[in-house]
Design goal:
Pfam family, one (chain A): SBP_bac_8
Family (chain A): Belongs to the bacterial solute-binding protein 1 family.
Organism (chain A): Embleya scabrispora
Shape of chain B: globular
Number of strands of chain A: 12
Strand content of chain A: 5-15%
Structural class of chain A: alpha/beta
CATH topology of the largest domain in chain A: D-Maltodextrin-Binding Protein, domain 2
GO molecular function (chain A): maltose binding
CATH topology of chain B: MetI-like fold
GO biological process, one term (chain A): maltodextrin transmembrane transport
Structural class of chain B: mainly alpha
Helix content of chain A: 40-55%
Number of domains of chain A: 2
Number of strands of chain B: 2
CATH superfamily of chain B: MetI-like
Number of domains of chain B: 1
Largest sheet of chain B: 2 strands, antiparallel
Distance between the termini of chain A: 68 Å
Oligomer: heterodimer
Chain lengths: 442, 323
């Protein structure tokens, strides 16, 4: 064959490959087939107990309804992999992921609106959970299936050794943090303990995530709604500045936050608490099985966060079921969503001792105490109900979380930084983000 | 070798090849002669085809896609929207971009020269044929084969910022410290640089060792006879003999330095207080963490252009030098 023919053949092959890369939006209006198996993606470690829990929930659903479900567990780069499937125009049918992901997925057209008329027990879903699944225009795009909130874990043996009571105010919290840092609570004769474990790295915006528990308790806010879905930056309000100053003093003045916190994400911070290097940790209930095993359930206790200058508001989060666009089995999607929030589905999701699909139930007819006799779970459920607050459903919450994490990290890392100047700079960045997302208050 | 080549009948005729007389009449005959001499012209292409197809599919098409994406608002499901140079503006105007560029340059220069200097020193120490040296060389090469995630975790432990941290214990013996290392904005960049040098130096060492074998031993003898000291022999014989090795290593290390990501991402993720933010971590945050793939693509194209320009400059300098 002549060289030119080979070049032609190569060009043709390249064109074919390129064409295949830019194929049309197949599957957007897919032909419906109620027998088609549902592909379910869940954000949990593959091969771990979380995947097993999801499989058991899927099996119970299959048994109850006859629809088939194939579970895929993905943890690392979950969102990136979802984007890859979006590029192929072949999304999974159902996704179980963080409630805060709704804005990103909705703005990219990945979600199908949930018809609440097809959700049998929709009236029994906890109000704030239901609210977390609404987009900015008030339509339901996510259905909560699991809730969680932050509570305070305390080294009980340390507290008792130093004859302290669980803190009920920020002053008591700071005093306990200082005592754990300076009074050798582990009794090894060394100055090697800290009051509070905190993941203050900017990775995935952890510093912002953690700080929100303190910011909201002080009455501060990252961004404030001004009405009609418009927001304005709020990190320079007196309450926000006060919260930042107080939290910063814990690290800079009292030195009560674990050394190296500003470069730590969650795994090393978890290790700090379980290795007896820090005496308090503000975290959700999902770590209880881990700490029970590594540290011992008798070594620590769970109490609600102490009241801040305003109240005891803490970060509430959870998982939602998202019905993905382009599915060829919308009836199956609706049936799964309905089952997941039903009493039966919620109870099934709470079974086991480690890999819960449901942390705190979102169905008001399910009493956590009846299924999990451990009173610590009741504490978490009470905190969620009384003080839990979700991040707002704006088009894309991630940039807000990222820039606020950068600022918190900066202020905790450099104790000489001017707090007011840094927060003014942060407000300017937040204003730009709100403007870019089309939700800035004029 | 192809079957045609193995066939004695197909072997080229001995003696000089017939001279090409004219373009028109000699074309077919010329092809036949070439075919007989070197096999079919497409044989090497056939062998290269798997690699070329894989490169086309996994490298070049994505690269072209990335350039296209850099001018679009990427919405994989809804369809991309053309936004002109908005993504480039976003990257260039993003908070801390200039700082990230500066940090990248500082880190690339520091790691490149640090790793080359240390690698060269190690190569001089470990040059020779002894079996024991082979073992030592393998041991010294270990940091290169250890996964970066493990390296980062090891250094995180060594950099523990309190007095009982490993490196701080050593500093204490010298009456210094404790240092915050990666947790202090003043020392974080240097700490990451040291980790990069520790990991990159053994790789450079192996390249230098390979280069050292090509340096003429006679020159050392002549220099010694002329009374050159050990340092003078290194300076006037070894270094000039390794000139090409230096330039190749420089290009490789500089590109590696500009693309630095993993150690920064794992050790500090750009913090504390943005003191170690490099272009790649910034692109990652803008593109993948915030799901703005077009913006990320624009950043990647800018970085690619910078790397390309650097490579071309070095090549031009080499060419001028060789003239």
């Amino acid at each position: 064959m002549q060289r030119s023919r080979w070049i032609g053949a190569g060009a043709l092959a390249s064109a074919l490959i390129l064409t295949s890369c830019t194929s049309g939006p197949a599957g957007v209006d897919a032909k419906q087939n109620s027998k088609a198996p549902l592909e379910l993606w869940t954000r949990t470690t593959p091969g771990g107990p979380g995947e097993k829990g999801a499989q058991e929930l899927a099996a119970a659903f299959e048994k109850a309804t006859g629809f088939k479900v194939e579970v895929t567990a993905i943890f690392d780069d979950f969102e990136t992999k979802l984007q890859q499937r979006a590029a192929q125009k072949k999304l999974p049918d159902i996704v179980m992921n963080d409630a805060t992901q709704i804005g990103t997925m909705h703005s990219q057209g990945l979600l199908r609106e949930i018809d609440m008329g097809k959700i049998k027990d929709s009236a029994q879903i906890i109000g704030q959970g239901l609210q977390s699944g609404k987009s900015l225009d008030g339509k339901q795009y996510g259905l909560p299936i699991s809730a969680q909130a932050s509570a305070l874990l305390i080294r009980k043996d340390w507290r008792e050794k130093l004859k302290l009571e669980p803190p009920r105010t920020w002053d008591e919290f700071a005093a306990m943090a200082a005592a754990f840092t300076t009074q050798d609570p582990d009794g090894d004769g060394k100055n090697n303990t800290a009051g509070l474990a905190a993941p203050l790295s900017t990775k995935r915006g952890y510093a912002s995530w953690y700080f929100s528990n303190f910011l909201w308790a002080a009455g501060g806010d990252f961004i404030t709604e001004t009405g009609k879905g418009k927001y304005k930056p709020a990190m320079t309000t007196p309450a926000s500045v006060q919260a930042m100053q107080w939290f910063r003093d814990l690290g800079c003045k009292t030195k009560a936050i674990q050394p190296g916190a500003v470069t730590m994400d969650t795994p090393p911070t978890n290790e700090t608490f379980e290795a007896g290097k820090a005496g308090m940790y503000v975290v959700g209930p999902y770590l209880l099985p881990r700490f029970d095993k590594s540290l011992g359930a008798d070594k620590y206790e769970v109490v609600p966060m102490p009241k801040g200058p305003k109240d005891a508001t803490v970060l509430a989060e959870g998982s939602s079921v998202y019905l993905m666009a382009g599915s060829d089995n919308r009836a199956g999607q609706d049936a799964f969503a309905s089952f997941a929030v039903s009493v039966e589905g919620q109870k099934k999701g709470m079974e086991g001792t480690t890999g819960y699909t449901v942390q705190i139930p979102v169905n008001t007819n399910v009493d956590i105490a009846q299924i999990r006799t451990d009173p610590r779970w009741k504490t978490y459920a009470q905190v969620y109900q009384d003080s839990g607050r979700y991040a707002p459903s704006i088009p894309n919450w991630t940039p807000v979380r990222q820039v606020t994490a950068d600022a918190v990290n900066a202020l905790m890392a450099d104790c000489g930084l001017d707090i007011n100047a840094k927060l003014r700079e942060l407000d300017k960045q937040l204003a730009d983000i709100l403007k870019e997302q089309g939700i800035a208050a004029s | 070798m192809s079957l045609d080549q193995a066939d004695p009948a197909a072997l080229p005729a001995t003696g000089p090849a017939p001279r090409k007389v004219g373009r028109r009449g000699g074309g077919a005959a010329d092809r036949r002669v070439r075919g007989r001499r070197g096999g079919r012209w497409w044989t090497p292409w056939l062998f290269l085809a798997p690699a070329l197809i894989l490169s086309l599919y996994f490298k070049f098409i994505p690269m072209v896609n990335a350039v296209t994406m850099s001018f679009q608002e990427v919405q994989p499901y809804l369809g991309n929207r053309w936004v002109g140079t908005d993504n480039y503006s976003t990257v260039l105007q993003s908070h801390g971009f200039r700082e990230a560029v500066w940090h990248t340059i500082v880190l690339a220069v520091g790691q490149t020269f640090g790793a080359m200097a240390l690698g060269f020193a190690l190569a001089l120490l470990m040059e020779g044929q002894s079996r024991r040296l082979g073992f030592v060389r393998s041991a010294a090469f270990l940091p290169v084969v250890v996964p970066m995630a493990v390296v980062a975790e090891l250094w995180r432990i060594m950099y523990h910022p309190t007095g009982d941290g490993m490196l701080n214990s050593i500093l204490a013996l010298a009456g210094m410290g404790p240092s915050g290392f990666i947790n202090d904005p003043d020392t974080s960049m240097a700490s990451i640089m040291v980790t990069g040098i520790w990991r990159g130096a053994p790789y450079d060492m192996m390249i230098f060792l390979a280069g050292l074998t090509s340096v003429d031993r006679g020159l050392y003898e002549a220099a010694r006879v002329d009374g050159a000291s050990r340092w003078q022999r290194v300076r006037h014989v070894t270094v000039p003999g390794l000139r090409s090795v230096f330039s190749i290593l420089f290009i490789l290390a500089a590109i590696r330095g500009l693309r630095v990501f993993t150690e920064v991402f794992l050790l500090t993720n750009g913090g504390p207080n943005g003191s170690t933010e490099v272009v790649m971590t910034l692109i990652y945050k803008l593109g993948l963490e915030q799901n703005r793939l077009g913006v990320g693509a624009a950043g990647a194209v800018l970085l690619f252009a910078a790397t390309l320009i650097l490579t071309i400059i070095v090549q031009l300098l080499r060419r001028r030098e060789s003239k």
